Amino acid sequence: MTAKQTTAPERTRRSARQLVAASVGNAVEWYDWYAYTFLATYIAAAVFPKGTGNSLVPLLSTFAVFAVGFFMRPVGGLLMGAVADRRGRRAALTVTILLMGGSSLLVGLTPTYASAGVAAPVVLVVARLLQGLSVGGEFAASTTFLVESAGPGRRGLFSSFQYVSTTAGQLVASGIATLLVNTLAEPSMDGWGWRVPFWLGGAFSLVGFWIRRGAAETRSAAQRAAPRPGLFEALRRHPRQSLLIAGITAGGTIAYYTWTSYLPTYAELNAGVAKSDALLASTISLAFFALLQPLGGLLSDRVGRRPPLLGFGVGFAVLCVPLLHALRDSFAVLLVVQCAGMVLLTGFTSISAAVNAEVFPPRVRAAGIGFPYSLTVALFGGTAPYVGTLFKDLGHSGLFPWYVAVLCLLSSLVYLRLPETAHRELER
User: pLDDT, tens digit, for every residue of 220-277?
Assistant: First the structure.
């Protein structure tokens, strides 16, 4: 047996271990993050005071806290990205998952407004700030880790597992939320049922931590021997790349959070869809979305990164408004609208990790990706539920689809000018 024959299976096993380490931990991270979104109406009723004459006030408060958590993500991307660039990708990944587990437990233990008054929303805000710090660092470290673990011509495929695992976390969160809503009586769901997913999230994080401890470090020996980069070195030395990542991300993040997180609530508020139907449609469409990701990644390894990105951006700019306006009180219509958006969205999600990693040199890759990406997500993705609910509250719900379409169109202009990087060797 030749050396080549003996090393090929070893490379395959190593690649599988790397994918599992990144994916399992990432799924746990995003399970915790999205459980909050799916259970927003229950959290609103328990943690915030009732609005005087306006039933949307508690829900607006809940989504405002959701947005606040997003604004810690750039800090997490910068700090945990720096840890990944200085101490290694694996070290950053183990820290982020422990942070997420602790913050998930804190959400589950948040007191009600009736029992603790203003302390209840304060505890919730602290928990979301910790979650934001963790998720921002998670994307920076896991994106770099996944793409650096890929073999030649497979960066798009490996990149797709960023959103396979993210969607798996969402799917589990949505599935558990749907199960609880459909099996528990309303008083039980309002009282303690909404807390169960967050208690489970704390336990899941320990499993992810154990798996990640066995992953192989992807930072090269040359990078380990080089002087440590400064905290703001990526921004200072690579401002063009930072702006490029912001432009790439803006349309993708608003479309992603609208379709995968906010759409059930949007359908409830604007089309009268039942809460249980909205959650079930979301669960089915998320499973479909996860299956699409590797196909999108493989396609980009063949045809390049720019065609799928343009397919997403132009497709959403043209179809977002008619799709959201087509919603009505129908489970089938909601499911079709969600799945149609998921097909278009795959052009962005399946390859965003590869595109981001190919923009920055390895010395500052994690921090370079983490800060501009997370800041853009905070500005546009994290505020999507709040903006959509606010438009409804102001009596202009029809403007929200146009807001999403315009951002996707602007990102499409960036995609047109984007250098093709799919077939270049990744700098180590």
Answer: 777 776 677 777 888 888 899 999 999 999 999 999 989 987 888 888 888 888 877 8
Evaluate whether 149 touches 158 at the Cβ level (below 8 Å): yes
User: Cα separation of 147 and 29, whole Å?
Assistant: 19
Residue 238, both tokens: 């690579």
How do residues 27-43 score in pLDDT, each as one tens digit? 887 888 778 877 877 88
User: Residues 369, 146, 357, CA angle at the centre, nearest 5°?
Assistant: 30
Q: Which residues contact 294 (CB under 8 A, 6 or more apart)?
A: 157, 160, 161, 164, 350
Spatial neighbors of 340 by CB under 8 A, at least 6 apart, are 319, 323
Q: What are phi and psi of 280, to 5 degrees?
A: -65, -45
The pLDDT tens digits of the residues spanning 385-407 come to: 778 888 888 888 788 999 999 99
Pair 310, 191: CB distance under 8 Å: no
Look at residues 198, 335, 180, 197 and name the one whose alpha carbon lies nearest to residue 259: 335
List, in order, residues 6 or more apart from 171 with CB less than 8 Å away.
Answer: 283, 286, 287, 290
For 73-113, give the DSSP string.
HHHHHHHHHHHHHHH-HHHHHHHHHHHHHHHHHHHHTPPPH
Q: 306, 217, 312: which is closest to 256 by C-alpha?
A: 312
Find out whether 302 and 387 touch, Cβ atoms under 8 Å.
Answer: no
Name the one residue in this structure whose structure tokens are 């479909």: 288
CA dihedral 100, 105, 111, 113 (to 10 degrees): 30
Residues 237-245: contacts with CB within 8 Å, 24+ apart?
237/364, 238/360, 238/361, 238/364, 238/368, 241/359, 241/360, 241/368, 242/368, 242/371, 242/372, 243/372, 244/359, 244/414, 244/418, 245/356, 245/359, 245/368, 245/369, 245/372, 245/373, 245/376
- Give the residue from 166, 132, 170 showing the smallest Cα distance to 349: 166
- Residue 231: Cβ-neighbour burial (10 angstroms; 0-12, 13-18, 19+): middle
Pairwise CA distance, residues 8 & 365, whole Å: 28
* Burial tier of 90 (Cβ tally within 10 Å: 0-12, 13-18, 19+): buried
Q: Any residues with CB less than 8 A from the CB of 249 and at least 6 apart, and which?
A: 352, 372, 373, 376, 377, 380, 411
Distance from C-alpha of 80 to C-alpha of 74, rounded to nearest angstrom: 10
